[in-house]
Amino acid sequence: MRNPSIYTTFLASAGAAFTFPAFAQQQPNVLIIYMDDMGYSDISCYGQQKWQTPNIDRLGQEGIRFTAAYSASPVSSPSRAALLTGRYPSRMGIKDVFFPESYTGIPESEILISELLQQKGYATGIIGKWHPGHRDRYLPLQRGFDEYFGIPYSNDMTAQVYLRGNEVEEFHIDQSQMVRRYTEEAVDFIHRHQEQPFFLYLAHNMMHVPVFCSEEFRGKSGHGLYGDTVLEIDWSVGQIMKALEEKGLLENTLVVFSSDNGPWLQEGPLGGEAEPWREGKGTSFEGGVRVPYLVYWKEKIQPAIREDIVTTMGLFPTIAELCGAELPADRPIDGYSLTELLLKGGKRASDQYAYFRDNTVATGLRVGDWKITLPEGEIRGNFWRASTAAHDTLLFNLREDPEEQINLYYKYPEKAREMTEALSAYKKEYGEIPPPLVVGFNDQLHELRQQREEAIEEAKQRGVTSKAQQVDGFTNAE
Fold first, then answer.
1. What is the pTM of this model?
2. Under the phi-then-psi rule, with left for phi > 0, alpha for psi from -120 to 50, and beta for the rest, what region is 313?
3. In 3D, which of 390, 391, 424, 396 has the Cα closest to residue 409?
4. What is the C-alpha to C-alpha distance for residues 80 and 102, in angstroms, rounded to an integer?
5. Where are the beta strands (DSSP E) in 165-206?
6. Averaged pLDDT for residues 291-318
């Protein structure tokens, strides 16, 4: 984190110091391909061996493949809000995912990258999953996008519809055709806007359950529906890159491929993989927030594998700088610009990443190879996340122990003290965290259900067998 006014002044002076004649003459296009629940090792350039993803791999082979890249949150809505604003979700009060019955979204006071680029004359479009608020005033066309086609939230939620702009275009959708449909829309967007700078945000609903692929890819991976769908995503990337190449746009298009969080491990064969990292979606262990992150720009970015700690929040200041947009100076921006790293082989301005438990308070910090995590009580697993045993303060060296198995807190007391002080300093500088937004009635329902589960468990431990006694007043709460 940094003083916003100082940071904006730095970018302004940096723009004068750096000489990037390619985009001084012509504003670059920007394409972000953002996956849902795709695990770190779901694609072959990150270690997947059961299937190959040559089109996605190409982005990393001819661009930069980051091995220590993070989303801002281990769940969807908060990480998407962070991507679009460059700010941690807790600054916006976004604690959890939005549901169909939710009434809120990214606060209207927030500034999205789409709004910055729209003001600079960009054609702005989003295809696919939105999910930071689906009531009318929070939809893409009201948040800096000229065009929108897709599903306003996750594909497992009720009332699946395709929106075109602000209106429902289809009430009944065939999810097996979703990847193909999004791909066609993306190629069409590129064709229609090839003569002007454009920002295209392609946010796939896959690999979120339920997982679907078209008949053409069924059985193609030899490893089940999940693998088949990854192959169709790889095909989609190939089609989009082909469209850019045919239109002569590769030399002037920044392409980013990443995921909103780690894999949904509870889904077994319909969930992805995060190896070698621990746990997955919904946790602040590495598997929950460590994501694939590939950045490609033909002839501008030199091929490299980088271990720098980077985040998807960094796209906000990076894109703003590359496209000549001015960052807002009235708020802290948590993402660091990667322009110097991408174009000149430099380094990110920080070697830190903060982990936020439930997107409300920083409870962990990574500095270089070291990671500290504050104590947490036992988490009883449910349909969407695994059980986690209670733990004391954890200290890991991620280079030596990527699976976070060996707690070094007591073995290295000086390092433990240093990291504890660093986390305290970070939280103090971060400042006050606003109360979470009321996501909707679903929050109350979820809380009541959780209370009932706890009451039933307590009753079982007391040996109570009567169902009425077990729920003890929670039956009528729903």
1. 0.88
2. alpha
3. 396
4. 16
5. 167-170, 198-203
6. 98
